[in-house]
Write a structure and sequence with these properties.
The chain is α/β, with parallel strands linked by helices and about 325 residues long. The chain is about 35% helix and about 30% strand. It has 9 helices and 14 strands. It has an 8-stranded mixed beta sheet with strand order 8-9-10-7-11-12-13-14, with helices on one face. Strand 8 and strand 9 form a beta hairpin. The longest helix is centred in the last third of the chain and has 18 residues. It is globular, with a radius of gyration of 20 Å.
Length: about 325
């Protein structure tokens, strides 16, 4: 199995706590280099994770001909800029969600990927989970009949005001940070784009949405509701993850968190009774990196495809428009 040489642009917390540990478990990944603007942090990452190359600027890493693919965990406002620069340097890219602030900008990035002959994938690690695939298979096979309603929730702690999630200039707010999980989960399960989108929000004094709720209406009157928010005890690491689907013949529910690993379960209830099924789930971040690696070496198609990312981005555009985010 050939290993892809990866570079990381930035020393963000999600890289340290989630993605890099996943990369170290990925069988086809060689964690080759990291770049950051703080030399001490770069050195710390190198020593902690055994990364051979450390660069003091993102440009230097992109100029390294040994780097085949880059992971971008930078703040939301920098995703477009550095994804574009990485692709123009001939690197394949795994970029944290949201890939871009709008569908139009996301479409430009995919056009650039095609032009430069590289692969671009948005980082929704949880979509690689065997639990998600098992539930999707149940739904597609008619385990609960025709889907009528779905609910998705993702609520976390509030953050201090200096946190990038609480600042408008860094595209903060719960829709960009959390709601994109809800919409991607809903669109993944329904397999289509909503026909109508409604949403309302509570905003902070800084103009970012701290709680948003919405309704997505699909063909044949099917509906999904979502709730996302940063409303629990400040920086306490608390969260609520909720998922359920109701059909004409029953319902499916799982209390597993987004990106959770381990022995996870979901419940199916029909007229025949209630059944709990268990799925063994590896590190989702490892699965994500391995999948993009196979796209590079073996010609697989990205699981989180261009079409899916653009469909989700358009839905997010409609939500942000409905809540007046750009007007705040």
């Amino acid at each position: 199995m050939r290993k892809v040489k990866w570079g990381i642009l930035g020393t963000a917390g999600i890289a340290k706590s989630c993605t890099i540990p996943g990369m170290l478990k990925a069988r086809n990944c060689e964690l080759y280099a990291i770049a950051g603007r703080n030399p001490e942090k770069v050195k710390d990452y190198q020593e902690t994770f055994g990364i051979g190359k450390g660069y003091g600027s993102y440009e230097e890493l992109l100029q390294d001909p040994e780097v085949e693919a880059v992971y971008i965990p930078l703040p939301n406002t920098l995703h477009c800029e550095w994804t574009m620069k990485a692709m123009e340097a001939g690197k394949h890219v795994l970029c944290e969600k949201p890939l871009a602030p709008s569908k139009a900008q996301a479409a430009e990035l995919f056009e650039a990927a095609e032009k430069n002959g590289v692969i671009l994938m948005e980082a929704y690690a949880y979509l690689h989970s065997p639990l998600v695939h098992a539930i999707k298979e149940e739904v597609d096979n008619g385990a609960i009949g025709e889907i009528l309603y779905m609910e998705s929730a993702f609520i976390t702690s509030e953050h201090e005001q200096n946190n990038i999630r609480m600042r408008k200039e860094t595209l903060g707010g719960c829709v960009y940070d959390l709601g994109c999980y809800n919409t991607s989960q809903i669109l993944w399960m329904f397999g289509e784009e909503p026909e109508n989108v409604q949403a309302v929000s509570d905003f902070s004094e800084q103009g970012v949405d701290v709680y948003t709720t919405g309704i997505l209406t699909f063909s044949q009157g099917r509906r999904a509701a979502f709730n996302c928010g940063m409303t629990l005890k400040t920086d306490a690491g608390k969260r609520i993850d909720r998922f359920q689907m109701h059909g004409t013949q029953g319902w499916i529910r799982s209390d597993a968190r987004f990106n959770q690993e381990g022995s996870l379960s979901y419940t199916i209830c029909t007229e025949a009774g209630e059944t709990v099924k268990t799925v063994d789930v590896p590190d989702n971040y490892s699965l994500e990196v391995e999948q993009l690696g196979r796209c590079i070496t073996d010609g697989e198609r990205p699981l989180v495809s261009r079409e899916f990312t653009l469909r989700n981005a358009r839905t997010l555009d409609q939500i942000l428009d409905a809540i007046g985010y750009c007007e705040k």
